[in-house]
User: Fold Peptidyl-prolyl cis-trans isomerase from Artemisia annua.
Amino acid sequence: MGRRQIDSEPTRWVPLGLLLMGLFSCFLVYMFMSVVLRPSEKIQFLSVSENESVELVDNNGGCCRGMDHFELWGAAVKWGSDFKFNSSVECCDACKAMCNGKDGPCLCDSWVFCGNPDACGSKYGECWLKKQKDPLAPDKQDAGENTIWTSGLIYGKGEGIVKMETQYGPLHIKLLPECAPRSVMYILELLTMRHCAGCQFYRAEGRGQSWDSEGNHLNSAPFGPPFALVQGTLEAEGVLFKKIPTEECPIIQRGSVAWIGSGPEFFISLANHEEWKKSYTVFGYVLPEDMEIAEKIATLPTVPDVWNNINVSVLEKPVVFLISKG
Assistant:
C-alpha cells in the first residue's frame, strides 16, 4: 500500500503541471506578439498604458463610438430637443439608420448627444442628428472638459476616404470613425495641414509561403517572418503627436490599417492575422482595388534587421507619402 501511495502522488500533480505549462506557453506567445511589430530604439514607438484602455462597444457586430467632451456643429436634420435617447449608442444608431448606403450620400453623417444628467440638466438625453458640408472637414463647435456633449461621425458608402499618395500609386483608405473616432479625428487634422512631412513606409514584408493571395494562412506554414505587412509612421514633422487611447480592436484582416500601440507607427496588413487576436486599434482599411500598391511596396529591396530578437525586413529606401482627401 505504501508503494502505491507514493506512485499516486505524481499522478495527482499531473493536471497542475499541465496547467502551468499551458499558462507558460500562452505567456510566451503573448511576449512574441508584443515585439513582432515593435522596432528597436532607432525607431521610437509609443505603447498604450493600461489606464488608457477604454471599454469597447459592440453593437450587433458593429461599432457606434463617439468622443466625450466634444461638440460637432452642422445643419440639424433631427432636433435634439424633440429627439431623446438613453445612451450615445442609441443616438449613433439613429444616425446610422439614415445612412444605409443604398440611396446615395448619408442624410445624417454626424451626431451629438448629451449623456450626463448632472451636467446636461434639461438637455439630458438630447440627440442631435446633423449633416456636414464636408464630412472630412467637420464643423467643430467646442471641445474640452467643460463641454457637455459627446459627438461622432458616420461615413456611408463612398464617403470618408483619404488617399496616401506614393510614387508607386495611391492607397485609398476608408476611415472608420464609428469604431475609432479619436484615430480618425487625428487623420482629419493631418488633412488640414496639407502636408505630412515625415510620413513614410520604412518596413515591408510580403506574404512569403505562409499566406495565399487572398490573405488566408496556409496549413502547417509558419506565421512569419516575413509577417505580411507594410509598416510606417503617420507623424508629421514639427507637430507634437499625442498618444491615442486604444479603440476598437477587431481581428486583423487583409487590408486593415491599424496603429501599433498608441501610434503614430501603423501598419497595413497584407494577410489575415487571426493569430494576433484583438491586439491593435483598426482605424481604416485599404480599398481592395488598391491592395496591389501595398503588395508592390512589399516587393521593394530591403535589408534584414533585428528588432527585439525578431527578424524584420527594412526598406533600403523609405517610401514617403502625402495624405489628402480621396
Observations:
- The domain at 70-153 is CATH 3.50.4 (Hepatocyte Growth Factor).
- The two ends are 80 Å apart (CA to CA).
- Residues 1-16, 27-35, 39-61 have pLDDT under 50 and may be disordered.
